[in-house]
Structure formats: C-alpha cells, structure tokens
Amino acid sequence: MAVQSETFQESARPAWLERETNLEKVVKIGVFGVILLVVIYPFVSVLATSLASEPDVIKNGGLVIWPEHPTLSAYQTIFAGGVVTRAIWVSIGITTVGTLLSLAVTIGMAYGLSRNIWGGKYFLLIALFTLLFTPGIIPNYLAVKQYGLLNSYAALILPVLVSAFNLVVLRQFFMGIPGELLDSARIDGANDWDILLKIVVPLSKAVIAVVALFYAVSYWNDFFTALLYLNDSAMWPLQLVLRLYVVQGAPLPSAGDVVENAPPLQSIQMAVVVVAMIPILCVYPFLQRYFTRGVLSGAIKG
User: What is the overall mean pLDDT for the chain?
Assistant: First the structure.
C-alpha cells in the first residue's frame, strides 16, 4: 500500500515538477545555449566593431568579432566632437524628469482610482479608452502646436506622461492592499497623503520599480517624438543622433579633425550604439530583484 501511495503521489505531480531524464536535460541545455548565443552575438559584434581599427574592419568586411588591433579612437572621436556628449545629457535629463513626473502622476491616479471616489469609473474608462483608440500623428502634432510646446522638451514628456497600461497595473496592485490596513491608519488620524506616501508606496516598491523601468526605457529609446517636435538639432536626444549617424550614415561633424588617423565609419557608428545601450544596462541590475517581484505580483493568491 505504501508503494502504491508513493507511486500515486509521483504520478499526481504537475508536469513541470516531474524528474527530467538525461536526454531532456541535454535538449534544454542545447536550446538555452542557442538562445544565449543568439542574444550575445549581436552585442559582442557591436562592441568588437566599436573597438576595431580600420585594418580589422576591412579584413572582416565591416563586422568584427575579435579585433586584432583594438583601439578607443572611435570613442575619442564621438566624445571629442561634442554632439554625442550633449545628446547624452539631453537624454539623461528627459529620461530622469519624464520618469519622475510620470511616476508621480501615475501613482496618484492609480491610488485615487483604486478607492471608491465619485466618478472613478468614468475616469478609468477614459484611461482604458486610450488603449483601444490612439490618436494619429497629425492630431498629436496639432495638439502640441496648439499648446505652444513645439521645439521644447515638454513636447517629449507631457503628451506621453501617463501610460494607461502602467496605470491599470498600479491600480490593480493598490486594490490588493488590505483595506483594513488603510482603515486603521485613517482611524489613527492619517489623511490620504499620509496613507499613500507612508503605507501604499512602501508596500508597492516592487511594482513601482517595474513601472519606473518601463517609463525610463520608453523615454530613453524614444526618437520619433523628438523628430516631430524638435527643430533645433542642438536639442536632439541621443536616440535621434543615433538614427542620424548610424541608420542614415551621416559623418560626425569634424570627425576627421579630432584624431590624426580617423577611425572607420563602422567603428564610430557601433561606438554610438554602445554608448546608447550602456545606461539601461547599468540601471537594470539594480532593479532586477524588484522587477522579478513586480512581474509576479498578483500571480499567487493566498
């Protein structure tokens, strides 16, 4: 009987908890290895090409995997020109200010919509409506022009200040916080601001970190709104500079005058790509633990 009950318990285990055979382990390792190679290969090639000299680029046909004569001349060129350096600071400023403002407004709206307030359902429906029907380029441009935001950094932040998806995610998480906890704080004399800042926000660090990462990546990678609303090239963010010099192949201003032996164009382009990737790669490890917890928030009940 004991053997039968043990066999029944093993057979009743879910499929993902069954013991793997050696063949299944080999297959999984092989699949993960291929995926890892596909993900790492482009990044390695971009980094290697940015460090390659002109003989390396010519020898490998423009795509270098291992530079035989590594050099930092491409990075010296893009930073000495001043265009990329200015664009980096512009992108950092837009991302920082935009993320903070978006978080503040989204958290406030999500907390208000998670409580029983007058007209809350109508405001929520309006937010959800933007998920189904998005305005076109021309209406957006006319609205930005009407409010006098053209050729200003506010045009890159205010029209996309609140994401309806992030708003719904935060609202659902706030609704999962026990109401008894908030009621007890209110009985002790706490107002809505105290409850939001001292109870709700500390309990929601994981999901707020996820939303902050979504906003930051969105602001950092956005170039199309800058292309539409910014007429002054001195105000361009890094992604728009990246598009100009990498996609369109335009040379950097006075690139040949910065160093005696100017690096090849491919190395300069890949160096700009690496510089554009570094900030997100540096921020993500610090938010990874919150990101994992935030993604799993609400998946397990009880």
Answer: 79
Is the C-alpha dihedral spanning 64, 67, 68, 72 positive or negative?
Answer: positive
The topology (CATH level 3) of 76-296 is MetI-like fold (1.10.3720)
Higher pLDDT, 182 or 286: 182
Residue 152, number of CB atoms within 10 A of its CB: 16
Helix axes 205-221, 265-296, angle to 10 degrees: 160
Q: Which residue has the higher pLDDT, 91 or 20?
A: 91
Sign of CA dihedral 157, 159, 165, 169: positive
CA distance 295 to 288: 10
How far CA 81 is from CA of 86, 226, 244, 270, 276, in Å, comes to 10, 21, 15, 16, 16
Each domain of the chain, given as residue ranges in start order, spans 22-71, 76-296
HEC-encoded secondary structure of the chain:
CHHHHHHHHHHCCCHHHCCCCHHHHHHHHHHHHHHHHHHHHHHHHHHHHHCCCHHHHHHCCCCCCCCCCCCCHHHHHHHHCCHHHHHHHHHHHHHHHHHHHHHHHHHHHHHHHHCCCCCHHHHHHHHHHHHHCCCCHHHHHHHHHHCCCCCCHHHHCHHHCCCHHHHHHHHHHHHCCCHHHHHHHHHCCCCHHHHHHHHHHHHCHHHHHHHHHHHHHHHHHCCHHHHHHCCCHHHCCHHHHHHHHHHCCCCCCCHHHHCCCCCCHHHHHHHHHHHHHHHHHHHHHHHHHHHHHHHHCCCCCC
pTM reported for the whole predicted model: 0.77
